[in-house]
Structure formats: C-alpha cells, structure tokens
Amino acid sequence: MINIANPYETPRCSSDSLIISTTLKSSELTFCNSKPKSDYNAINKSRLSLNRLAERMTLGTPPTQAYGEPWYWDNRYAHESAPFDWYQKYPALAPLVHLYVPHRHQRILVVGCGNSVFSEDMVNDGYEDVVNVDISSVVIEAMQTKYSNRQQLKYIKMDVRDMSPFQAGSFDAVIDKGTLDSILCGNNSRQNATQMLEEVWRVLKDKGVYILITYGAPAYRLGLLKESSIWSIKLHVIVKFGPEGSSEQPIRELTNPVPLEEGGSSVEDEAKAKE
Q1: Which CATH number fits the domain that encloses residue 151?
Q2: Where is this region: Disordered (predicted)?
C-alpha cells in the first residue's frame, strides 16, 4: 500500500489486501481488488503480506527499495532457481484471463515474468503466443533453456520502462503480477512507474487489456493509471490463493466487477457490503 500523503514515493511493500487490476486500452480498464467477505481483521489473518512473501523468496531481508533494482533480482535468481508465483497462481486467475483474453490465439505479454510457471500454465490452457520479459538476465537465460522446446513461450531480457524492441500495438493483453509494485518500491518510483505504464499502453493494441495484480490500494493505483493514459477501469475482488494455488472463491463472484466510484473510494464500502 502506498503512503497516502505521497502515494508515488517509496511505497510500503505490504498491504492487508491484494488487488488485481484489469485495464483495457482505449478507455476501458479493469481493476481487480482482492479482499475477502470477512471483516478487515480476518483479512490480515487470511493473506500473506508482501513482506512475508519476500521472506520466503529472499536470502535475508533486503530494503524494500531493492525490489526495483536489477542487481537484486539477478542475485536472487542466481541463488533460488525453484519456480515461484507472486500473489496468485494461474488456476485462481484463469477465470479473469478467460474473461478478458477469450481467444487462445491472442498475443499476450507477461511483464516481470521471473521464474513463474504462470505462462506455462497459460500455454497448457491453450494459449498459443505468450511472450515473457524480465529485467534479470539470469532468470531469462534459465527460462529460455527450460522452455526451449515450447514454441508458444518466448523469453526476452527487457526493461519494462523501455520496450522499444516491440512495435506499437503488438499485444492483445499485458499481464503484470507484482511488477508495478516492485518498481514502486524502488528509487524514482513515480517516474519509473509512469514510464512503464506508458510503454504498456504503447505496446497494447486498441481495446487491449492490461491485467494488473497488485497490493496497492485502488485509489492510489487509479491515480497513477489515470495520470499515464486514458484507461477504462474495472475492479475485481479475489481472495488469497490456497495451498494448491487455486482460490476458493466462486468463479461468478470473481468475474463480476465491483462498482467503483471515481477515485476508487467505493471499494472498501463495497467489500463491507458483501459481508
């Protein structure tokens, strides 16, 4: 969650709620906010905070600013080769992916892919063209080797702030599981996040969708998105993933957008109303 007084500078990389935001280009954005039906004390008990996730993934506990730096990820992946999915695994998010990327031939970009099996699961689900980028050369080389026999999967070392190798309008969808959050944990967070979002907008086709999974509060993420480009926004709520990587949430509940007032101020009231 980002500091309220200055939402763009060095955000606190933990929150009591997970937000999944699906953003549609050409004035439609879908924003998914993950909260359970229970009260807010239960939220704390039912979710892994980003800090706890970091403890599981890292050697020691670095400053949160390190999450925005390439050297940190190179070092991490050099020491930890086991696959890891931030926030949610594919089975939990598949209903939303199916909703906003309904055709398996559509071209998809996964930013900040890491060593996740999310993209592999997408291909196993029938998606035919999944391009993955990450700033870490260590993890990209490992994933290129791992998936050398899967032509549907491509792995490219790239900084999401500058994706100039891709032409404008190259992708039907961009999926982001925690990459924007990581950038917002680094130095020059506002500038870097704006550059990333402008590049996401550029590489998306008209009517393309940006699916953002984040721990940031809706009001703050909405402000950043609205600064960068003209998005039409929808918000979805999702509970934390279970031990098998799938959510216990009913599909219909997950795929129904939450009513969202301008500025995102209605999200908390909506979550309470669903109790």
Answers
A1: 3.40.50.150
A2: 246-275
